[in-house]
Every structure is written in C-alpha cells, then in structure tokens.
Amino acid sequence: MFDTGNIQQIEMYQNVFPFIGVTTNPSILKREGKVDVWEHFRKIQQIIGPEKSLHVQVTTSRFEDIVKEAYKITHQLGKETYIKIPVTMEGLRAIKQLKQENFRITATAIYTMAQGDYAIMANADYIAPYFNRMENINIDAKAVISHLGARINECKKQTKIVAASFKNMGQVMTAFECGAHSATVDPSLLVDSLNMPSIHEAIDRFQKDWESVYGKGVTLLDL
Asked: What is the C-alpha radius of gyration for the chain, rounded to an integer number of angstroms?
C-alpha cells in the first residue's frame, strides 16, 4: 500500500508500482496542509478506483468519539473505507463494537505482541505493526510480526498483517519474510529501491555492448 496522502505521488506511481490501497493518518495529512479532508479523500478514491482500499485514521481517542468518527468517515467515503484505530483500551473497545456492525477496521500503532493479539481476537481486518519504531525502542520487530502471523494461523482468523513504519526497503523485505501479508510504504522508498547504482551500471553495460555491434542510436525498432 502507498503510505501517503499526496495526490501527485499517488497519480504518478499508481502506474509504476503494484499496490492494493492507500493508508493515511493525521501526521501524513499534515504534510498536505489544511486541505478539505473529505474532498481530498474523495480525490484519492477517484484516482485509485473501487478495487483498491482507502484507510482513514480517526483523530480522537475516546470510545464514543471513535465510533462517531467511524460513522462520519463511512458516511462521507463509503462503507468500504477502512477505519484506522490505534490499539488502546478505548480503541479496542471501539474495534469490537464496530466489527459487530460490519465496519472494516485497520488496527494501528501496534508495538507489541499483546497489542496485536488483542486486535486479532477483536477481528480487525488488518493490523499494522510499526517496524522501524519498534526497532528504535529495542523491540524485536521480526519476532513481533512472526508471532502475529502464527497467532492468525493458529486461531484461523482472517486478519491480515500490514506492516508499517519503515526507513528502508530492507526492513520492508524483512517484514514480508517474517510473515507480513502486506506493507504500507512511503512511495519515495519504492523509488529508491530502483535507483541502485548497480542497476544503472548493468543497463549502461547492456547499452555499450549493443552499440559496439550495431552502432550508436540503433535499436531493435531499426532492424
């Protein structure tokens, strides 16, 4: 998934990278300035189409207000929108309530095995463990994701792990190796993964070898 609220990024990279949705949170939206949030989200929906998911995070922490915001989000953007809720006491209560009412839920701000287990048992559709942030506070992110994947399988739940919070593509790949079903990534990291010097060196060598035989500027279209 693209972890961004930037319209230009989504428009630019949707035709480059395979992706299944867009995730946002208040910190991501802050980068876009004080936009009309509903129009902004609707524009994202128009760009990505109905086959891909949009994940919108609540902006409050009290159970009653989380539930109200969930209703407001789906009223504005449709019932297929995933409601992102941090896994706290109030958040878990809201997740359980909203799942009983058939809302789509992404449980977020997960740092521990326990948080993930609670969200899985509450039937969250997605859980979002924070890979880099866990590593920054000496929590073994690999162990957490591996544990959560095993728990989902053992309990025969439909919950999917969408790993989040990355500083490089190595962490993204490690999350997948540990059992994450998906990852939400800043598109700039995806771009960086294609800009390795070794890739360009190989392409340059191909070009030079071709030109040494057929001449500069000649392509297969000319033959």
From this structure: 21
